[in-house]
Amino acid sequence: MIKFRFYYDKDKEEQFLNSMSERGYAMKKFILGFHIFEKTEPNKYTYRVDLISNKKMKELHDYILLIEETGAEYVQRWGMWVYFRKKGNFELYTDIDSQIDLYQRIRATFGYMTVVELGCLIMEINAMNYSKIALYFFVFILIIILALTYQIYKCTKKINYLKIKK
């Protein structure tokens, strides 16, 4: 089975993957928003998605091995995200401080992406004088910036919630 879902929000993607697992589908692969599932027993796996943008190749390899030592399975890497699954309940970040750190890293990554997109937006503003298609790119980039900004807001909200919970 193939399902298209494109998430900027790791929590929502985990919810989606875990709801599919509840229905008896295990994610086999992910590419450009397409989740490829295979039939399995219901509730077989718990899925977790983690940001790995700050890890070098050797660190990433060691991190994957560390997670696999817990009994989890590495499903795949997609860009700056890595997907794990495990039979039974499974958490990557069990204490509040590590959860806060995770959401701060996600927020910073989306912040960097927003700055890059703002640069692209400025270039498109200049290009609109020369090309009509630049307007379409302008709108597209603006939508991306709004989506990234919304994720920054959600991460900030989650960080504040965790700090209060602490």
Query: What's the pLDDT, averaged over the residues?
Result: 92
Beta-strand percentage range: 15-25%
Low-confidence stretches: none
Number of helical stretches of at least 4 residues: 4
Largest sheet: 3 strands, antiparallel
Counting structural domains, the number is 2
List the helices and strands and how they pair.
Blueprint: E1 2-4, H1 10-22, E2 25-31, E3 34-39, E4 45-51, H2 57-69, E5 73-78, E6 81-87, H3 96-127, H4 133-165
Antiparallel strand pairs: 1-3, 2-3, 4-6, 5-6
What would your notes on this structure say?
This protein has 166 residues and is an alpha+beta fold. It has 2 domains: 2-87, no CATH class; 96-165. Helices cover 55% and strands 22% of the residues. It is built from 4 helices and 6 strands, in the order βαβββαββαα. The strands form 2 sheets. It has a 3-stranded antiparallel sheet with strand order 1-3-2, covered by helices on one side. The chain has a 3-stranded antiparallel sheet with strand order 4-6-5. Helix 3 runs antiparallel to helix 4 (133-165). The chain is globular. The termini are far apart. The model has no long low-confidence stretch (mean pLDDT 92).
